[in-house]
Amino acid sequence: MKLKNKAIVVTGGAQGLGRACAERFIADGASVLISDINSEVLSSTAEEIGAAYLQADISKRSDVEKVVQECVDQFGKIDVILNNAGVAKNQEFMDISDDDYDSVLNVNLKGTFMGVQSAARQMITQGSGGVIINMSSINALLANPSLATYAMSKGGMNQLTNVAAVALAPHNIRVVGIGPGTILTEMVKEAIFTSDEARKTVLSRTPAGRCGEPSEVASVAAFLASDDASYITGQTIYPDGGRLVLNYTVAVDEA
């Protein structure tokens, strides 16, 4: 129960990595508030896993602030926020419109920035420190033109994690990131595994020979949220099956 008595917010918590992380936090003893733009899935998930919830569009500052305040209202404080809500669009680079760009960056980067600020303000007021976790991606470092807006947003998020870690260190607030490889979530199925060829391409660049499970990312989140990671800040951890260190492709065993 390494997260006992911790109050945690998870944005984008209705499904995928957000839900997996929320479930793990609860299993480790935390009180958890999940938020999501999809109110129907959000309410059913909250009931299933035993979390508080609030529907929110984290591209809007007022909604982000309401989520943080709801955590305080429900649990008396906020100790950790996982800025997980995100969107991805698979499209040709030259087809990206201004609206496409804004729709991704406003959620993935601006939304995370506002989550960092809003949670940090409350943590500073409380005076007991805290942990801010930003859900990045290996695409922050890799050049995948079909996911250009997503990659740009996650690259910016990594630098946000870096500068916020330095800015907030005097307040005993740690800021860290998680950069998953290809994890079997709804987003991957819709935006990345768009064909058998796309799936084989991903696996050919993954030394572990398989995609990751959401629970494997959740275990990293639970570690970073805990006191076990008390000397880690300004770092992004990459649970990616060896993807980033690979500079060649590997054979895919279809058996």
Write the layout of secondary structure elements.
Layout: E1 7-11, H1 16-27, E2 31-36, H2 39-49, E3 52-55, H3 61-75, E4 80-83, H4 98-126, E5 130-135, H5 148-168, E6 173-178, H6 186-191, H7 196-204, H8 214-225, E7 236-237
Parallel strand pairs: 1-2, 1-4, 2-3, 4-5, 5-6, 6-7
Approximate strand percentage: 5-15%
Largest sheet: number of strands, sense, barrel closure = 7 strands, parallel
Topology as a string of helices (H) and strands (E):
EHEHEHEHEHEHHHE
**Number of separate helices:** 8
Low-confidence stretches: none
> Helical content, roughly?
40-55%
* Neighbour order of strands in the largest sheet: 3-2-1-4-5-6-7
Radius of gyration, whole Å: 18 Å
User: Structural class, from helix and strand content?
Assistant: alpha/beta
Shape: globular
How many E-type strands?
A: 7
User: Termini distance?
Assistant: 40 Å
Mean pLDDT figure:
95
Entry keywords:
7-stranded parallel sheet; 8 helices; single chain; alpha/beta
Q: Care to describe what's here?
A:
With 255 residues, the protein is an alpha/beta fold. It has helices at 16-27, 39-49, 61-75, 98-126, 148-168, 186-191, 196-204, 214-225, and strands spanning 7-11, 31-36, 52-55, 80-83, 130-135, 173-178, 236-237. A 7-stranded parallel beta sheet has the order 3-2-1-4-5-6-7, with helices on both faces. It is globular. The N and C termini lie far apart (40 Å). The model has no long low-confidence stretch (mean pLDDT 95).
